[in-house]
Amino acid sequence: MRLLIHNTPAEVAVWAARHIAKRISDHAASGEVRPFVLGLPTGSTPLATYAELIRLHEAGKVSFANVVTFNMDEYVGLPEDHPESYHSFMWKNFFSHVDIPHENVNILNGNAPDLTVECAGYEAAIEVAGGIDLFLGGVGNDGHIAFNEPFSSMSSRTRVKSLTEDTIAANARFFGGDTSLVPRTALTVGVATILSAREVMILATGAGKARAVQQGVEGAYSHVWTITGLQAHQRGILVVDDPAATELRVSTYRYFKDIERENL
To answer: Which of these is catalytic: 118, 142, 199, 241?
Structure first.
């Protein structure tokens, strides 16, 4: 696993966006006909990365015309046109600003008549697309990735998941601070779905993520902290800012700063 420690959230976003853009451009330059398949998250952490990707697109440095996306999750029972649905989030903050074809966007349907069938179909669609080339994600304060809450199976696949009170409380900020408005269940890709990607990049910014980062880097591989699944990935990258790295041992911090100094 790679760990890149930047000074600020803005530097995290710029590095992540440029890394994604390079992967897309390299894929296009390789002559590969198959679209580049990109896994994407929602939440506040990736917003700056999306803004930088939009800027790179507008500058002519990356095209999403041959990119297929799969989002990590979606609330159950929230209308797609609700301002806090992840469909709305993605179109408002990213898709509407780049040249990705509408039909190349895949987001779970939290209003499907049969949620189990919807989840199985999502896994099948990823396989048909050729698998995910790069999965971008964030991490919760309790170390969860996507909606794979603590004690989720590390071999889990896309499924219906009940949300913890901590996650509901954290997401209430998007619902005017009212926890009663936050859906109690969601559809989410599993830990194994994420780790099946050819490359996984997790972003963490702010002191509130410091414990999750510490566990993700120094803790034991465990379903208690699903971020630790990144430890077993051959091309796993954790990109953080200084506040998110404050609970790492000094020796760990110095080690990764040293070996990644040319990449910062």
So the answer is: 142
The answer for 77, left when phi > 0, alpha when psi is -120 to 50, beta otherwise, is left
Rounded Cα distance, 179 and 176, in Å: 9
Which is the catalytic residue, given 149, 199, 233, 241? 149
Tell me the one-letter amino acid at 10: A
149 tagged catalytic: yes
Active site residue 144: yes
Q: How far apart are CA 79 and CA 142, in angstroms?
A: 28
For the chain, the farthest-separated pair of C-alpha atoms sits apart, in whole angstroms, at 52
pTM: 0.95
Count of C-beta atoms within a 10 Å radius of residue 75: 24
Q: Average pLDDT, stretch 156-162?
A: 97
List 74, 144, 199, 241, catalytic entry: 144
Tens-place pLDDT, residues 233-264: 999 999 999 999 999 999 999 999 999 998 88
Of 2, 5, 38, residue with least CA distance to 22: 38
Active site residue 32: no
User: Residue 232 sits in which domain range?
Assistant: 2-263
Residue 9: burial class (beta carbons within 10 Å; 0-12, 13-18, 19+): buried
Q: What token pair was written down for 75?
A: 């609330």
User: How many domains, in total, are found in the chain?
Assistant: 1
Which of 6, 52, 57, 73 is labelled catalytic? 73
Q: What is the CATH number of the domain that holds 164?
A: 3.40.50.1360
> Beta partners for 185?
162
Active-site residue, 118 included: no
